[in-house]
Amino acid sequence: MLQTNKLRDNSGIYLLIIVAIAAILRLLFLGTIPNGFFTDEASNAYDAYSIGETLRDQYGEFLPLFAKSANSYPESLYIFISVPFIKIFGLNEFGARFPAALIGILTIPILYYLAKEFFNQRVALIAALFLAISPWHIQFSRIAFRAIIFPLLFCISLIFFLKSLRQTKYLPLSGLLFGISIYTYNSARVFVPFFFLGLGIIFWQHLWENRVKTLIAFVLFLIILIPLLIFSISPEGMARANEVGIEKNPFTIIQYYLSYFSPNFLFFEGDPISRHSPDDIGELYYFEIITVIFGLFLLFKENSQEKNILLLWLFLYPFPAALISPNSSVRTIIGVPLFAILSAYGTTKLIDLFQDKKKRACIYSAVLIFLASLTIFVKQYFIHYPTWKLIDWLTGMREIITYADKSDYTCLVISQNLYSKYIYILVPFYTQFPPAEYQRLGIDVVTDKLDMGRWKIQNFDQQNKLNRNCLYIFKKEEIEALAAKGYNWKEVHIVKDINGDQHYKLVEVNSVN
Q1: Is residue 305 a contact partner of residue 200, using CB atoms and an 8 Å limit?
Q2: Is the pTM of this model over 0.90?
């Protein structure tokens, strides 16, 4: 009892310490780790920069609900949130990633309050701690991807729904927030409506007894949904659906679905895409194999409507991703807070199995395991990860674009083969190209209109003759092809990564043999 009172009295201090740990892990070297800057990040940042300057995105659309981007039409919420931070920190990697880090940090105390609604203060604090150090959550808190907003808004929505079980005045607000959370990320468009329906089934009696407020919540949810429904049947929305490629084979979908419960994905290997997860690191820690499974085991034993919410969450979390691909940590990001809660619940119950003297030893052992796991992750992420698969992060593009931009050449050409034609967005990002001028030029990656004044994006393989007045940015493999085409060239600048490997070269083409 004394320990419980002490925990309650100091819970605010403990939570502040946990949030501080989360902030350090999300803000430390934010502009340089991950080592590079991906095109999706640059597109979000330049859209925010453009809106901040002109109230229009890079394509000239006025405050769009869905930004065209590279014809992917992502939700604009992350872009809108980014506008003031791009204004404050400038158009750079740190400014682009800071909103994600801030959202990730804010999710920690929100999860604390959500876990407290389900369990108690002790479980809530441990859940917040596990989310603070989660490799899965840290990764997406350090890159300028919009997906990180989804767990935050969803958890807030669920908190108000749980509160509405005691005070029905919160029910309409919950419906409103669930509707807004759909506009955070593609996966939310599938997950949230099914989850909303699941809540209706689990709590049908309570909702029927309070049917007026239930109806208001439902109507608010539908009203918020209308713009998304209109967009989904538009040519732009259909184009996005076709581009993503929904799997049609039910057996394949089941295989994909089951992959998200695989130990390889959760605990050992994680997402195979290096931008989503460092190599050889699971989405969860090794020790959570025990804590998550034990927490889940206890959850199945309990007969509680509130606890059934967690089982519903677990059942649905892989579904949006399973329609497209296996082992995607970004499409299943909504599972991160759930696993933190399950792991925290399992941890507290495991400790409670021991008597007082053994309990102390158990706590010490748990702390040692926790510190060892965190130390291994920190070493992997902050020391080794910046040296891995740098080409996937387009490492070195800042250096070579800024170097070329300062030159006296009137023609600067980036080869599409460096990544794809989508690499075009790095030019306005790194050169801080004036948005009004960019919009006037009508740059459009879909129609291959990629002429930005002195900057051009071209496919070297399709060029019959290179312009002698241009400075070219090539991959080192393309340099070898120059000789085969009969060109003489002079290397103007070479970019080497942290490992000493050459990825990009700035080349002046002199003549044809």
Answers
A1: no
A2: yes
Tokens linked to 95 = 């400014």
What pLDDT shows up at residue 96?
A: 98
Phi-psi region of 408 (alpha: psi -120 to 50; beta: other; left: phi over 0): alpha
Domain boundary among 322, 353, 387: 387
pLDDT at 2: 44
136 and 161 co-located in one domain: yes
Work out whether strand 451-452 and strand 502-512 pair parallel, antiparallel, or are unpaired.
unpaired
Per-residue pLDDT of 18-46, as tens digits, reads 999 999 999 999 999 999 999 999 999 99
Contact criterion met (CB below 8 Å) for 68 and 1: no
Residue 279 vs residue 288, higher pLDDT: 288
Residues 102-138 pLDDT 10s: 999 999 999 999 999 999 999 999 999 999 999 999 9
Q: Are 349 and 400 in a shared domain?
A: no
* One domain for residues 93 and 215: yes
For 445-512, the DSSP string reads: TTTTB-EETTEEEE-GGG-SS--TTEEEEEEHHHHHHHHHTTEEEEEEEEEE-TTS-EEEEEEEEEEE
Q: How many CB atoms lie within 10 A of CB 347?
A: 25
Write out the two tokens for 250.
Answer: 């039910």
Which residues partner with 376 through β-bridges? none
Q: In what order do the strands lie in the sheet with 455-458?
A: 451-452, 455-458, 411-415, 470-475, 502-512, 487-496
Same domain, 94 and 218: yes
